[in-house]
Amino acid sequence: MLQMKDVSKVYRTEMVETHALRDLTLHVREGEFVAVTGPSGSGKTTFLNIAGLLEELTRGDYKLDGVDVKNLGDRARSRLRNEKIGFVFQSFNLIPDLNLFDNVDVPLRYRGLGRGDRLRRIESALERVGLKSRMRHYPAELSGGQQQRVAIARAIAGDPRLLLADEPTGNLDSQMAREVMELLEELNAQGTTVVIVTHDAELAARAQRNIHIVDGIAADLEHGPALVRPTRTAAQPRA
Amino acid sequence: MLGYYFDLAIRSFRRNVAMTVLMVLAIAFGVGASMTTLTVLYVLSGDPMPGKSQDLYYVQLDARDLEGFEPGEEPQDQLPRADAEALLRARRADRQAMMTGGSAAIEPERADLDPFFARSRWTSADFFSMFRVPFAAGSAWSADDDTTAARVAVISRELAEKLFGAVEVVGKTVRVDGNELRIVGVIDRWRPVSHFYDLNTGTYSAPEQLFVPFSTSRDLELEHTGSMNCWNIAEDPRALGAPCEWIQFWVELDSRDEAAAYRDFLVSYSEEQRAAGRFQREPNVRLSSLTQWLAHKEVVPDDVRLQTWLALGFLLVCLVNTVGLLLTKFTRRSSEIGVRRALGASKRTIFAQLLVEAGTIGLAGGILGLGLAWLGLWAVEHQPTPYAGLAKLDLAMLVTTIVLAIVSSLLAGLVPAWRGCQVTPAIQLKSL
């Protein structure tokens, strides 16, 4: 699903050169649930941004679902991001002046789907997260946990093959965090590949595999630097 | 997607009403001021005889003596009476008319009306057909009437209604400077953009109320108004052989060949007059089409041009302000743009969305600007200028107003939209 080979990311200013990722090699198979951990500033968010095509890599190779993304232009990257990836952010990142329906509608609009198809997908996604009855409400009218569930609905409405989550429970209390985590596990069980970046050890422990990033170098916690293998049996890939 | 972008634009306006109102007002005032002055300029520089102006020509000859002669200088604007009458008699054009301005005392038959002066024109029969003058009753006088100095007149509808309370007054007489003139025609409402046929008596003044054959006006010694230039002492400057130019002469020529032939005729006429000792200079003739003549005389007032430039400058200032406001507005939305980019919007998509938002502001500004332009033209109408009543917003200018507003706002939106679509989603999402 996600193949990175010797990926490096360097941020350059006139004075400083910062190596956020160094020769990162990583393979996430379809249907896996992977947790990426590491201290602040270790490069895990940079990894997520590159994996989500939000940033370009400096060196190395990256294939997403078999597509080499290195030389893709903005339109092709945007289309790939829209069709293959769903994002869940720590701060939910819902658009405040759109109601839940319209928030979930955003990625579907950019895919150019017809009205009927969009309506069906939006209702289905909101139903999966238990918020269909509140689809005309605005984000400010919801609790943090509910907002994160809407964000998940938005991420899955387009039926992506890969779900990238950046500290998805970081702003939630333990009860809501558990609910969100169960939702992500449920989606993974249904075949969606899930990669989460987290500081939360309990959350990371629930993943099939943990990748630890320190100073831009990835390491499997059990097998040493740059060795990446599944530590649990992956869910069956979707047909 | 256009509908979606429009919907997002409306939501964005609701989110920050004050800033939106500021931008709409900036566009509206800029467009309103520009369209007011542009409309005045457009009307004043418009073709007064659409579809016919290319066939109408103004004639100039140089009948002056050699005093002050400078090679290559323009001939006089008007003709001496002798030459105008000679050209009229020659009938070498499809139509021709000599004319000058006049003023005459009208003595009404109605007891309740005091005598008054009417703006008049002493001309020849072809004037009416050449300039497509519409008739409410009767018709123009004939060429024979010109020759015989017949006591006839054509009057305007306004004058007919004032004197007789009716338009069907053909056959009645009007008393002009103590002379009875038989009315042969009543002109319907006729208001060409400019007083193009005689720029000496007001560039934008309305047509005259009374028209009398030139020959009759001389017989009756009716008063002449307008400019007159004499290059020698004349006992009676309006006499046939007086060395004075005071007559306008127009011809209608239906093709370029005819125009070329008429120009040749004017040259040979000048040569003949020189051989006869009347003209002293080398033949120096001009045959200007109506539009050439108006351009040569620079009929559009300088202050109108200046006002137009000032208004366009004001529009530019408004646009610069709008650019600043849009930059602020779009920069504030960087986080939303970052989310949209993450969810699959390309830079081009974001650019289009932001540009539609700018265009929608322009549409609103254009509609308001249209109202302001109407208000501006109402103010112009109440100015003490000769063109006050002419400036009206027609369909073309109405469409131009809306298009100008939208194009202006799109131009103003280009840089902010480009900056907006350059948002790096990773940075925006990290900062949330």
Please, could you describe this protein's structure?
The complex is a heterodimer of chains A (239) and B (432). Chain A is of the alpha/beta class. Residues 222-239 of chain A have low confidence and may be disordered. Chain A has a seven-stranded mixed beta sheet with strand order 6-7-8-3-9-10-11, with helices on both faces. Chain A has a four-stranded antiparallel beta sheet with strand order 2-1-4-5, with helices on one face. In chain A, helix 3 (100-111) packs across helix 4 (115-128). The two termini of chain A are 14 Å apart. Chain A has helices at 44-51, 74-84, 100-111, 115-128, 144-157, 174-189, 201-205; strands at 2-12, 17-28, 33-37, 59-64, 67-68, 85-88, 162-166, 193-197, 209-214, 217-220, 224-225. In chain A, strand 4 (59-64) and strand 5 form a beta hairpin. Chain A has seven helices and eleven strands. Chain B is α+β, with helices and mostly antiparallel strands and 432 residues long. In chain B, 49% of the residues lie in helices and 17% in strands. Chain B contains 14 helices and 13 strands. The relative contact order of chain B is 0.19. The interface between A and B is medium-sized, with 28 and 25 residues.
Subunit organisation of the chains: heterodimer
Largest beta sheet: strand ordering of chain A: 6-7-8-3-9-10-11
Distance between the termini of chain B: 27 Å
Counted by DSSP, the helix tally of chain B is 14
Q: State mean pLDDT of chain A (0 to 100 scale).
A: 86
Spatially, the strands of the biggest sheet of chain B line up as: 3-4-9-6-8-7
Uncertain runs of chain A? 222-239
Number of strands of chain B: 13
- CA-based gyration radius of chain B: 30 Å
The coarse overall form of chain B would be elongated
* Unreliable residue stretches of chain B: none
Range of strand content of chain B: 15-25%
